[in-house]
Every structure is written in C-alpha cells, then in structure tokens.
Amino acid sequence: MGGFPFATTELDLPEGATLALYTDGLIEARGRDIDAGMAALRDQLRRARGTMEAAADRILANLVPSTSADDTVLVLAQVSRAPGR
C-alpha cells in the first residue's frame, strides 16, 4: 500500500468461521474506550445471523453513531474450503 512495508500472516481458521476486517471508526468513538468498542464488536459478531451482508448491516447500525464523522469500514467473510482441498 503506497510503498509502505507490510508483513504477511498465515492463520488456520476453521471452516465456517467469520473473518472481520474493520477500520478503527467501528470500535473507537469520542467518549467510548477502544476496549469497550472491541467488546461490543465481539458481542455483535457472536450474535450475527443471516447473510454476511445482513450481519454487517446490523453491526454497523448497532455500533456506529449516526453522528459519526469518522470513516468506517466493515468487511465480513466466511471461511470455506478451497475447491480441491
């Protein structure tokens, strides 16, 4: 990204696991501690149901105040076995 160095990480995730990628705007807000934001996100992910899109919509609606000035991104992906593996 922009010529900055980066590191790669490999993880073994169980099939069906949900991978959540997000920006800090989802878990940090004025007046809310980052640890409280992380706990709220974990709680929302545990209760996620339906499609990934529907779950992401609910999580964003529950965690991002309508007055937020911060950009917020949430990407959810469900782990599945690669074809032929």
Overall residue-averaged pLDDT value: 87
Q: In DSSP terms, counting alpha (H) and pi (I) runs of 4 or more, how many helices? A: 2
Strand order of the largest sheet: 1-2
Distance between the termini: 30 Å
Structural class: alpha+beta
Cα-atom radius of gyration: 15 Å
Major sheet size, sense and barrel closure: 2 strands, antiparallel
Primary descriptors:
85 residues, alpha+beta, two-stranded antiparallel sheet, 2 helices
Commentary on this structure:
The chain is of the alpha+beta class and about 80 residues long. The protein is built from 2 helices and 2 strands. The chain has helices spanning about 35-45, 50-65; strands spanning about 20, 75-80. The protein is globular, with a radius of gyration of 15 Å. The N and C termini lie far apart (about 30 Å).
Report a brief summary of the structure.
With 85 residues, this protein is of the alpha+beta class. It is 29% helix and 12% strand.
Topology at a glance:
Layout (H helix, E strand, L loop, with lengths): L17 E5 L11 H13 L5 H12 L10 E5 L7
Antiparallel strand pairs: 1-2
